[in-house]
Design goal:
- The chain is 25% helix and 14% strand.
- It is an alpha/beta fold.
- The strands form 4 sheets. Strands 4-11-12-13-10-16 form a 6-stranded antiparallel β-sheet. A 5-stranded parallel β-sheet has the order 5-2-1-9-17, covered by helices on one side.
- Helix 1 packs parallel to helix 11 and helix 4 packs across helix 11.
Length: 539
């Protein structure tokens, strides 16, 4: 049936995370009639915090309710939803609810570097973006104001900027201060990480961070930005929000324009919404899945997929994590989860051979893992207490994001084996691997960590490196941006080549993943897109 709305939307936004919220807010504030469809429910911060406190085990996803009609990959049982078919797992986590995955992020808000968008031209690898850094730069500034970013001015190996950060950087913890001193002696650029987290008395109605140190999985007081805040602003400007609406099909008209979206409710009742313009702002797996499920006579390979690029070129930041015990106590776990980063390896001629990296000093309290390991050793009583205290004060963890190049063989598609979710929709099937471009860089990263550990007095041979690569939930590439409709899905305005009234607002558009978190670039492009649509809609 067709959903009865107060007015036919001029714009239908599918997805209610940071991308959908900012597009909807910009368009609604410009006077457009906007409807937002979210596949999951609205969430209450107080209830999430209570769930986390009571959870056993406490994981990144434990605060978030299981939503049978909109399944979410879980930490301990990812294959309950994502179907892994490749040499390596693509174990992503994301939240299907109003606000999206920014409920449990570290709030790291880095700009890409100008060179990140010209990999093919400068280094002969990967792909170039069809736009320049300076095309986005004003929107980066807008996004920093919208999200409330605190960051360092004139930091080494950071992106150029035309305006200051809205707030000064978060202060270093004691641990970060010591790392800063030692890393500089080793020749590394080490800076305060830009973060969408209030550190002033009040910013945009948000209280200042009070250092709870569990930003991941949930900021208990709302000091850091989450996408639901933009959704609320869009609603205040007149946008309509429909929750628990799982879009599974986009309809294509005779002229190639999208005419309607169909969605299912938790009870499998189907509704149809017509609109003038459509923005697909779901994440980098769910958005492409909707497109590929929408096969029809006018889109035999799925919506927007005449290039056969929808679902392909999946990227992430294949991660490494290395730990060691410093000689002196530094007490990690005071303040936000990630306060600082090594930026010297974000760019350089080496990118023609191996990937750029951002290395981070993890500021999370390691007491749980240390206590379990000590118990496994058979320690009890005072010996256990002393070991936990000693090791917790000294356990250092350095993680790294490694840039990955787009590869069409890394792909997502609806299940080819008929495996479905609770609504009868196909589950995502993923083929994924990591090539030598990343592997060479990861080996260099481990060598550098061992050098750093030696500087901190770690015992020889004591550094522990994770096996394989850690996922970082930065899902990019599956609706890749480009000038040529034959090998890309959207153009530089994020408009699909195949359908003039369908845009995609997601990191899935990115032709490169860089070596930094993707959210600020998502936000900048979302604001740019919202402005573009609002301007185009004017009579």
């Amino acid at each position: 049936m067709t959903t009865t709305l107060p007015h036919r939307p001029q714009l239908l936004v599918i997805g209610a995370g940071v991308a959908g919220g900012l597009v909807a807010q910009r368009a609604a504030e410009a006077g457009m009639r906007v409807t937002i469809l979210c596949d999951g429910p609205e969430l209450d911060r107080t209830q999430l915090v209570d769930r986390f406190r009571q959870a056993d085990p406490q994981t990144m996803m434990s605060p978030y309710p299981v939503v049978p009609h909109a399944p979410q990959p879980q930490v301990a049982r990812t294959d309950d939803y994502l179907i892994q078919k490749g040499p390596r797992p693509y174990n992503q986590q994301y939240i299907r609810a109003v606000g999206g995955t920014t409920w449990h992020w570290a709030a790291s808000t880095w700009r890409y570097l100008p060179n990140d968008m010209k990999l093919r031209t400068l280094y002969g690898v990967g792909r170039d973006w069809p736009l320049d850094y300076w095309d986005i730069e004003p929107w980066y500034a807008e996004a920093e104001r919208a999200l409330g970013v605190a960051g360092p001015e004139d930091a080494p190996f950071d992106a150029p900027r035309s305006s200051p950060y809205p707030m000064p950087p978060a202060p270093f913890s004691y641990m970060d201060q010591i790392f800063h001193e030692e890393l500089q002696r080793l020749g590394y650029a080490h800076i305060s990480a830009p973060q969408a987290r209030n550190n002033q008395q009040v910013y945009d109605g948000r209280p200042p961070c009070c250092g709870n140190a569990n930003c991941m999985p949930i900021c208990p007081i709302g000091a850091q930005y989450s996408g639901n805040m933009s959704i609320e602003k869009a609603q205040a400007a007149g946008a309509q929000l429909i929750t628990d609406a799982v879009v599974h099909r986009l309809e294509v008209g005779e002229d190639g324009r999208i005419t309607a979206a169909r969605y299912l409710t938790p009870s499998r009742e189907e509704f149809r919404v017509e609109a003038d313009r459509f923005v697909l702002a779901a994440n980098g797996i769910e958005g492409p899945k909707i497109m590929l499920m929408s096969t029809q006579d006018r889109a035999p390979q799925g919506v927007g997929n005449s290039s056969d690029m929808v679902g392909r070129n999946l990227m992430d930041h294949p991660g490494t994590s290395s730990s060691f015990d410093s000689e002196r106590p530094l007490w990690p776990g005071r303040g936000p989860n990630v306060i600082s980063a090594i930026t010297s390896l974000r760019d350089g001629d080496f990118r023609s051979e191996y990937s750029a990296r951002k290395m981070m000093i993890l500021n999370m309290n390691p007491v749980e893992g240390i206590a379990l390991a000590a118990i496994d050793e058979g320690l009890t009583g005072d010996a256990l207490r002393n070991a936990v205290r000693h090791r917790t004060a000294r356990r250092q963890v350095i993680t790294a994001f490694h840039e990955q190049l787009p590869d069409p063989s890394n792909r997502m598609r609806p299940s080819t084996e008929g495996l479905t979710d609770a609504l009868g929709l196909p589950r995502p099937e993923i083929h994924y691997d990591v090539d030598d471009y990343v592997t060479r860089a990861a080996e260099d990263t481990k060598r550098r960590v061992e050098e750093i550990a030696e500087r901190f007095g770690a015992a020889p041979g004591s550094v522990e490196h994770n096996e394989g690569y850690l996922p970082n939930n930065h899902i990019t590439g599956a609706t890749i941006m480009g000038e040529d409709p034959r090998d890309s899905v959207v153009n530089s305005d994020c408009r699909t080549h195949d359908h003039p009234n369908l845009w995609i607002s997601s990191s899935s558009n990115f032709p490169s993943v860089s070596s930094v978190n993707v959210t600020l670039t998502i936000a900048a492009l979302a604001l740019r897109l919202g402005e573009h649509i609002a301007t185009e809609a004017q009579p």
